[in-house]
Amino acid sequence: MALSPEQVVITEDVEGSDIPVDLxxxxxxxxxxxPIGVRVPPGDGPHPMVLxxxxxxxxxxxxxxxxxxxxxxxxxxxxxxxYGCAWLRYRTEVELGYDQGxxxxxxxxxxxxxxxxxxxxxxxxxxxxxxxxxLEFVDPDRIGLxxxxxxxxxxxxLTSEYHGAAVxxxxxxxxxxxxxxxxxxxxxxxxxxxLRNIEEMQMGETEKVRARIDTPRxxxxxxxxxxxxxxxxxxxxxxxxxxxxxxxxLEEAGKEVEWVSWDHHLHGYIYPERGTDGYEVxxxxxxxxxxxxxxxxxxxxxxx
Length: 304
Fold this sequence. Notes:
Low-confidence stretches: none
Strand content: 15-25%
Strand order of the largest sheet: 1-2-3-5-4-8-9-12-13
CATH architecture: 3-Layer(aba) Sandwich
Order of helices and strands: EEEEHHEHEEHEHEEEHHEHEEEH
Shape: globular
CATH superfamily: Alpha/Beta hydrolase fold, catalytic domain
Number of strands: 15
Structural class: alpha/beta
Mean pLDDT: 96
CATH topology: Rossmann fold
Number of domains: 1
Number of helices: 9
């Protein structure tokens, strides 16, 4: 059967599973396309849907296919729990594009849209959520988000501006830009690019983070959030102060938010990786993922 150029869907088998993945391209606000890999459980829909994000953007469909193949354990758990799920990809992160770019303004010129700036990666995620709501096998009122690292910060940016997701889980959210944090001398500007290198930035203590963020600006963003959120930290992480401060500010703003933190060696412990002998999931990862699903269940009401 010939593919529709405007609705490209390619179905591939997934190793070790009888549930395939549908590889799709979703049109974003400026007409470019974001790749996603969607899987749905057996049975009649519409299904609740959980969108998975990790890190900053780029990589395209090759990244999505690799994520399904090598970080698909969480998908299997979600599918067994009755959720549809999708790995998604988005455009590359723009350094301080959110903090300095301001709100996206959409206007019309000569009958076509005109923007004051290019969309950012979290706005691609909004476009994906909006697209998922149009699919007949998705329950538009039961879409949840799970994001890790920069993907976790994207959930904060997204829910501050868009209220179409039912629940979010921000794991190890690298929310320094969302909190408008001024870096210290553990970060530096790369002389070759003029961009900040924050890979080894040391922000493990909440006191240090609180002293370096623009609290009024951060709270202005937080006050717009209506989506229930679970914030997940990682003990001894060099950004644990950012993770915890994010939770504390949400809690102080009266938001529906919960906190949990786990001691694990892997950044991104909620996304176990496939090894040569399959997935080796330790007790901490198992309990953490079980907790995520239990939290999603409360808001997405799987099984009624």
